[in-house]
Structure formats: C-alpha cells, structure tokens
Amino acid sequence: MMSGGFRDWRACLLSGGSAVALLLPAAPAWAGSGDVLGATAVAGEIAHAQKMGQLFRDPVSGNQATPPVIPPLEIDLDPSGMIATYQPAGPTFTSTNSFFQNLGTNRRTCFTCHQPQDGWGLSAQHAQDRFAENPTDPLFRLVDGATCPSDDVSSLEAMRKAYSLVLSKGLIRIGLPMQSSMQFQISSVDDPYGCNNNPTTGLTGAQSGTASFYRRPLPSTNLGFLSTIMWDGRESSLFSQAADATLIHAQASTAPTPAQQQQIVDFEGCTTAFTPVPCANTPSGAGLFTAQIVDQSAAYLAADGASGGPISLAQELDNFFICVNDPFGCDGQSFSPVIFTAYEAWAGLTGRDPVTGARLAIARGEEVFNSVPIKITGVAGINDVLNEPSVQGFCGTCHDTPNAGDHSVKAPLNIGVADAGPLAPPVLDISGLPVFTVLCIAGPLAGETFQVTDVGRAMISGNCADIGKTKGPILRGLAARAPYFHNGSAATLLDVVNFYDQRFGIGFTSQQKSDLVAFLNSL
After folding, report:
1. pTM score above 0.85
2. Domain membership flag for residue 490
3. pLDDT tens for residues 21-58?
4. What are phi and psi of 380, to 5 degrees?
5. Domain count, the chain
6. What beta strand segments (E) does 168-249 contain?
7. Are 435 and 419 in contact (CB under 8 A)?
8. Helix (H) or strand (E) holding 160
C-alpha cells in the first residue's frame, strides 16, 4: 500500500471507438448449456476435500498477515508499476468482514489466495515470498496447496517439493469426480506426483474416483463483468462459490451462514448476473474494481486524456450486460472489435521523452488488440459449433466485453492451452503437470483420443466436445498476477502473445509484440 506523498494523490483521484459491424454465422449454443453434471461435480469436490482432510492432516498451522483496513483506493506495487483497487462503497474493515475471517479449520480465509497486490488473485512470485518468510502460511496446506494431500511435509525441503506447483506457477489442486454418465473415460495418467494414480487420493477406474487438476486462482475483483464463475463454470452463483470455497479450501466443517456469504459477495461486488438474492449492504455494481494505475515507464495511466485505472473501470459497469458486444449477435446488435478505448487519447501524443514514448507504445498496443485480424481455426467452441473451419476474428472475438476483456456470455473454448503430447504448444511450459489420456466412448466424438493437462469443462458437462475447454478471464490487472492461462503455462505476457501469434499464425512484428505487451501491462 502506498503512503506518504501519495496520500494527497489518492484523495485527488477519489474526488473526482467506432463500431465495426461483424456478425459471424449462426450463434453457438453457449449460455446455460452443459451443466447437467455440475451439482454432482461440486458435491464430489467437497466430499473429496473433506475426506483428504481426515486422512492427511497438516502438521503446522501458521497464521497470515491481514491489513486492518482496505481503503477506498488501495495502491500496491507490482512488477510493471502500481495496481489499484477502488471501492465505491468506501473502506472495508477486515476484522468484521467474512472475506477476511477464518471460517474453516486450517486458518485460511478468502484473503489467503486473493490479495490486492496480486490483483486479488495469486502471483507465483508472492507465493515464493510468502514461503520464504513463513512456510506455515495458510496458503501452504496439504488439501490443495500441495501436489497431493498425501505429500511428505516433514521438513522444509519436503515442503518445498510438496508445494512446488503453487510456488512455481501459483497453481492450486482441484479434485473433481469422474462420473459414469460421461462420454469419456481416462485411459491413463502420466502423473509425476502419483496423486491421480493412487486410489486413495485419485482415480479408482477409468470412470470412477477423483481426477486432480492444477489451476490458477481467479481474481475476486471486477466481478460485475462476470459471465461465468470458475474456469470450468461449475458454480452457479457467487453465493454458492463462497460457501463451497469455504468448505473445500478452508476445510470448514459447516458452510458459512447466508449472512456471511452475503458479506463476502457484497465485498467482492454484488452483481445482477450471479446473485439470486438482492445485494444487502452495497448497491449493485459496488464492490471491488481493480486495474493498473501507474506504469513504470508511462507513469500515471489516467494522464493526458487516458482513462486507465479502476475508477474509470467502475464507470464502465453502467453499460455492461450479459451479451453486450457478443460477436455472435446474442444481443441482436453489431459487434465492434474495438474493445479497449482507455488509451485512444495517447495515439496522438507528440514528443521524444521516455514517458511519451512509453505512452505511444501502449496506445499502439491497444490498436493492435482492437484491429489486427486473426484467422480462427481449430477452436473447439467456435469452429466446430459454427461448422466453419475458419472464422475471421480479432482479439475481441474472445474478449468482447468493452474495456474489461472477458467474454460477455458463457463461452468455454479450447484454444490449445491444455494440449499435451504431440500437440503441446512449444511456447508454453506444461512441465510438472499431469498428462491425461482421454478416450471418448460415446457421442459424436466416440473413438477419438485426447492428451491434455486438464480435461476442463468436460468434467462438468460430461461431453467429449468440452475436453480442454475453459473460460477466458477478465483481462484487467494482468501485470500483478503472473503467470498466465488457467495452468500457469505462460510465465510472462510476452509468452502469452507468442503463443497466440504461433497458434493462429497472426504474424505479429517484433514491434507489435512489444507494444501489445506494454498495453496488456497497462490494464
């Protein structure tokens, strides 16, 4: 958190594109489909966590540091500059808020994996820092922080090995049940930890037992722009997510009360899309808004007519609704690939000083994001659903929500991030992740085999067509929460850009790559 001379700046802050018609062919059947196994999946996830907690107990139980207050404008350093969180409803006092309270049995809180300096997610670097400072920090718990609940943690070196994935890639283990009604079975798993291969902790057959996947914690901020909860969409509301996360990750013996769930959701951002009951203490659209506010090269990101930072982002929520700007026309309107407009004003800057040069780079990167065409091929969830082998798109085809960058409808896609074996993307680092060989035994894809590091959405829908699919995350606050993608396979934003460039044959120049990275860091 900033202090000293920045206090006056914070007080000052608190006071005060043309559309391109592009309607692709028939709209995919995305929203509200494929959740038939979701409730059973979540129940199995909870049961597995509770069983693991009974069988394998943590030998340590340290606490974590928690600030007494989250101010209306929280500003923290990150690798690219400073990230800020804005709370329109005012400060939050952590001692009386359920998001920060120990509601379970292992001293974890929501704050354990969702902290402001990490964009309310978890960066691998800060996981390493926390381990170095205190290896008994609640982040390091066997139930999901370790590569397997049965891992040896009897010494510091053993702990470092057990928590290797959370330390290197910020990954948390997710245990989901196989179900007999699925269109596929897991033929084999190449698991360096043996967790999936052990019937006590993992699979007991091709369609039974628990499969363990390793995923990044999603940010608990900017939730007003959500169209899907969790990477695989398995949670139906923010209320159920708050309860289930407490039962699983905090190893609670009972779910939080409705009042506690309400307080957690109100703090994060009570939204109309995923709140079955009205917001209790804050108006709809309040909560947390997080974005980069200072770039180490371009300085203040709301200067010279730009609108970077979280306060401008909060105002964007007034215009958001599910389906807004969807490229497949679910809102009945034209799609504009001009997704981000925060740095339009910088495109016309003149001058040769370093700050102006950095701002021009960000503006150019925003233009690259908005305008460079991409030939979309081989994407399950787009090409197969549309029955179109090639679709002309842009970055905004999959990141269409204006100035937020997630998809405005439930749109699980497989762009190849989870691929393993011969199809593994050479740009991405999937080392240390189990590789699942999945055989389709029913449905249109019967007889096909997949090798993936994560079965993805298919664990919830049961459909072979969903193997490897995940949702895209909201793009704001990227600089604070490396590594990237659901499995942490991209260490840097340049790795992300290189992956897309190679995967879709975009042909970015070196300048375009550099500018695009500068822009993504400014979000």
Report:
1. yes
2. yes
3. 343 444 444 433 446 688 999 999 999 999 999 999 99
4. -65, 125
5. 1
6. 172-177, 184-190, 203-205, 208-215
7. no
8. helix 156-162
